[in-house]
Amino acid sequence: MIGGPKYTAVADVYRRQGYDLDAIEAGVADRERIPLHVPVTAIYSKTDGVVAWRACIDSQNRNIEHVEVRTTHLGLGSAPDVYRVIAQRLASSLLAR
What we know:
Elements: H1 11-16, H2 21-32, E1 40-44, E2 64-68, H3 80-95
Parallel strand pairs: 1-2
């Protein structure tokens, strides 16, 4: 996730618990400077409700394919569209061997 918990619907909860969201964001930015060397499929939802979808878009790495699905944050773990994307990526990975 781009930026860390600062860009979630529960950011205020983290702040009230004493977390320094700016420091966490800086740590995430440090990690983002390390380029990815493997292909990544980033599945996100504009209707997530917890994580801002823009925080899921990585414009720094070229090896990332962003795939939008329509589901809630908790629904990402059981949405048929998510499983379809995963199955397609796994199948293409096996065919590439």
